[in-house]
Task: structure prediction
Amino acid sequence: MGWVKGIAGAGALLLAWAPNAMAADPDVPRRDPKGFYRYLTQEADSTTSTCIGNPITPLCAVETVLACFVRKNDDFCRRATWPGFPDLEFSKSMKSPFDDMRYYVQFAKKLGAANAGKYHVGDVVPEPRDVVIGIKKAFMAPGGWGNIYPQPNVYLLRRYKMEWRVVTWHTASTDP
Result:
């Protein structure tokens, strides 16, 4: 009988552990802790992300789109946006107001059938298994870092073949 109690105890331990083990979805980045910033600069060696240009996760796709703006590199936008997304066509000679950026993940979640309709991003209706990521950011100003924008940019991401792509984004009118 002792072995039955041992198996029952192990089963209870497994059930207690399982929800925590399954809670972390590798497609969904964790919310960054208060005071933590990621950095995106003109140079890869001073940029936090190591996956710009390689949208293998939803966050990598968002960071690639952010790098498109900061580095004025149209190829990054084409690489990480949904097929058919309009070209943004930055001029290499244009002075960018986005020289360096610091940002953090405010929220992220994978949508299911029950909640996909609650997270419209612009005019796009999300699908189950899409990912929504909210990024708060600030840009380098002549006197130092500017203030973090009060509302997040909300990105809607969808798997495309073996990668993730940004379908659309907008600035939220309120925090979720």
Notes: Residues 42 and 71 are 6 Å apart (CA to CA). The chain is about 25% helix and 25% strand. Confidence is low (pLDDT under 50) at residues 3-22. The chain has one domain: 29-171.
